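Section 5.1 Outputs to date
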Amino acid sequence: MDPDDLRTALRRWIDEGVIEESTAERIRAFEDLDEPASVRNSATDEEPLPSTDTESRLITDRRVVVALALMGGVLVAVGIGTFLLERWEEIPVAGRVLALLAVPIGAGGGGYRLRRRAPRTAHGLWLLAVLFAGVSLFQLAELSGVMDTLGSTTAERWLLLAWTALALVVASGLDSRPIATIGVLLGLATSVAAIDPGEPILLVGFYGAAAYVAGAVTSLSWGSVDDSTRPSVRFGSVLRWVGATLAVVALAAPTASGEPPRLDPGTGTALFGVVAVAAAFVALGLGRRTRRVRYGVLPGLVAPVGLAALWTVAASPVGRVPTALFGLACLFGVVVVLVAAAVELQETGLVNVATLGFVLGVLAFLAGPVTDVVSGPLALVFAGVVLLATALAAERGRRAVLARIRAR
């Protein structure tokens, strides 16, 4: 657990009467934690001394340090990869293998050694290890002849799966948002490569719904205990908001076109959708007695069902405008359940996704049916007025939902 997170949790547990101050002191001594001076002053009702040193405030802000560490990890990965790529043919095979193994293993080992003394720098090293591990997997497979033995397509699928599994395991262990995001996107690439759908939009939506349900399962509390103290809280929240984003984007695309699909989505995509819906039903059944689980899992059920219904309507001869209207209704339905989940889970990320879904729905409808009905300068005026109203509604709605979350 991150030292700052543990300090925050200890203070919250003391304020809520969960543990005594003496117990907190023993935990701090065991974990070798020292409270900052500002916190000690506030605990003794002393006014902390104001600081006018802007640089000091920036360095002590953990978000700035995390951003610097992560940026450093990305730049090192890109720099080493570029250096090796430029000189790849000149490096002997033994040197290639050594470099491909040394970088991710060395970065991961460094992150492990620094996990307590400098957790944010360790985070950047772990990000470097995960990013470069993909390069190492593919290049080692090519050097060893695995690509030729299994075939390039089959080998790429298994290598993507291995890279995805590594990223998700590391992200879950570190409770890392950036690495979790990378893992989810790698999982999407693996799914597309494995299923090879005719229309990838449908698979993207189903995958997003499945990722959302996985986020609910991994981090939500299934009993009466508050889930804020559970491990992998950030990891689960990333799965939810990235999955929800993919789902709303997949719903907005056919809403904008209003046309039947050009290609058959394929059996693999249909099976993926069935699995996503079944997983949501199972999660709802297991957590039916817990209000947070019911509201938290519901978007993972509404999104794939709405996407499948929209795809069915788009393939029927009802026409472009009715299809777009139906797609807009499905998208706004997902937005509503996302808002309900965000309020219940007190998760601002889902509020942002719901706002994005609302804006995308209006833009999709303007880009689709409205341009067919209205054209010329009148269409520009109408679109401008609608966009202004949409911006106002989205801003007010987002603030209202955030205020309700803070009030809980």
